[in-house]
Each structure stands twice: as C-alpha cells, then as structure tokens.
Amino acid sequence: MAVPSEGCEECGLPEIWLCGRDGIRHQFQQPLSALNLDQRDECFALVFARANTITECKSCRAELARLFSVPTFWWTQYCKRANGYFGSQEIVLGGDSPPGITTWARFLIKLVQGGDDYTWIKLNIMTHSVSAKNQIMMVFDATESTRERLLASLMDDGRNEEMTDLFWIYHRILNDVMDLHDQSIWGLRTHVRTVERSSSERSLSDKSSAESTADRPNYRKLHDLARHAIHIAETTATTINTIHGIVAAHGEYMKASTDTSDSFQSIARRVQNRLLLYSQVALGLQNRAVATKDRLHNEIQLSFNMVTQNDAATTIDIGLIAKEDSTVMRKIAYLTMVFLPATFVSAIFSTSFFNFNPELERWRVSEMFWVYWACSAPVTLVAIASFRFWGRA
C-alpha cells in the first residue's frame, strides 16, 4: 500500500479499478492518498492491496487508518487468524450530511481436492463509503481467482442503482461466498461418497482373509477427510454468524437513514431481503456440512467395526485349527501312553520272553511272561489316568 505521493517502496502500489455510471472500467496503480472519487459521477473503486506487507510498515498503517478509519485492532494477530467476522462503524462527516460507513469482513473457505490436496480461500475485505458517489472497497491478499471473481461480481452495470444502499457490496459478495462454500461442501461430499461405495463393495465381496487384510480401509485418508470436514463445518458456521452481523448492521443502517424516497427504500429492502436469503442458504449449507461430517464419522466407525469383525472371525478360525491340532496331539499322546510304559518295563527287565528254536522250528514263551503284563498293565493305566487328570486340571 503506497501512501506518500511517490509511493512506498516496500509495500508497493495497490492495484485500483474504477468504474463509473458509464460502466467503463479503468485499471491503474497509484497511492490511495491520491485517489479522489468526489470528482467522479457515482464512482466505485475496487482496490487490491497486500496486508501482509502493510502490517510491517508503520507509515502505511497510519496513513490507511487516517484515510479509511481502519481500527487498530484490525491489525492484531487474533483478527489475522480469525476464520470470519464482520464489523462496522459510522463516518461522521459534519454538517447536515448523513454519516458514511466503514465496514470490514473476513470469510474463510476450504476447498478439498483430495486427502492431501486442498486450498484455503481467504476473502479479507474493507469498505469505505462516504456516500453513494464515493465508495471504495479494499481486498487484501487476494488470489488471482478471487480477484477475477470480485471484478465480475462488482463491476457490472446493475450496481448503479444499488449504490444508494451502502451495503450493496455485501449481498453480491455473499453470492460468491455461498458459491465457494457450496463447492467446498459438495467436493467433500464426493470424497465421502467414494469411501461409502468402497465400503459397500468390500462388505459384499467374497474375498479370502488375506485379500481382505490387503484391502483394508485407508485410515490415514479417512482421518484427513475427517479433519477437512471439521474445518468446513467450522468455517460454514462462522460464515452464518458473519452474515447475521451484516444483516443486523444493515437493519440499523436502514433505521438510521434519513432518505425516505421510494427508490431508496425499495433498494434497501431488496438488499435486506437478499442478505436474509443468503443467511438461510448458509444455514442449509451448514446443515449439509454437518451431515457430511457425520456421514464420514459413521463411515470411520463402520470401517473400524468391519475390521474388528474380520479380525475376530480370523481369530476364531485360528482357534478352531488349533483345537483340531490339539485333538490330534492328544490322540498321539494317548498312543504314546499305551506303548511307552510297556516299552519302559521291557527295557527295565531287559528280558526276552520269546525264544525261537530253529531245531524244533517253533516259538517258546517264557513261563514268566505274566510278569510283563503284571507290571506294564498297571503302569499304563496309571500313566493314562495321570494324563487325563492333569489334562483336566
């Protein structure tokens, strides 16, 4: 923002667009202190400046406050970090002239293109309206898309008759703000709907356990979308409060106006009705934003529950397989208990109870063979009983 006649080198010259009753646009750069709209016929000036550089320049800040009644708190950190607000104050002109008005407003919109791809759109504006013939709107740190949008909204022929109401700028700006909020909310809704469809496809598919594990939800993406949904719901709710402030200020302006002409009253009512309309539109958008956020939260919960259910089913399958293995091992253990004691006894005795006589070509069994059974049978029974007892324990 340049304030001396030669301009401030650090802040640079602002970009100024002028449009009079003839509807012809004039674009140039010069210090705002040299901008005189009193000599023009119902002229509106749209100024694009850089607030980030002006904040660091004490001389430019002081000159801006002198020319446009900028309050000191407008430069504070909490105003710069706010997600939306509206304020106004009267300009006392002296004599019998009706007071002018200075307003400042801020809107913040988040556009989501993907999980990690998003854009913050900031609309930081200030209006200075001494009369219908002397109106200036300053836009700070506007992007190229915001700049083109505002030029199209405010620099048309239809604004001439509306300029008698010093709040005419806001009902046009709110049209753009509502459009951006609509893009923001429905853009998020598209991503949420994609997540919902993918969940439905996963629930209906007959994939194996390994494939289901590989096809689990992308929780990082879901939580990024949830963060975007929280921001969008927050900024939409703030926009509603901002519009309420604009409606209230315009209502006070209508009551305090001394212009009783039918044309002014008609235009003022038109502007008021438009502001009320955008208040209702913003409320509907907020409801849509909250519903989208709740849908996403529900989808995240569903994803957690589905994964938990799949994990539980996998755990049950593992348990059944382990149970089958345990049954087989128990059978093997029983067989071991049957043969091991007898083998143990036979090893202890190291005695052969069977003898083959080649000459007679027949087997002979020892008369003491009963000792084998007398020892091995009780030991086997005791081993099996002990195994069953300890198994139950």
UniProtKB/TrEMBL annotation:
Residues 197-218 are annotated as: Disordered. It comes from Cordyceps militaris (Caterpillar fungus). It is found in: Membrane. This is Mg2+ transporter-like Zinc transport. SUPFAM superfamilies: Magnesium transport protein CorA, transmembrane region. The chain crosses the membrane at residues 332-350, 370-390. It is a multi-pass membrane protein. GO terms for cellular component: membrane. Keywords: Membrane, Transmembrane, Transmembrane helix.
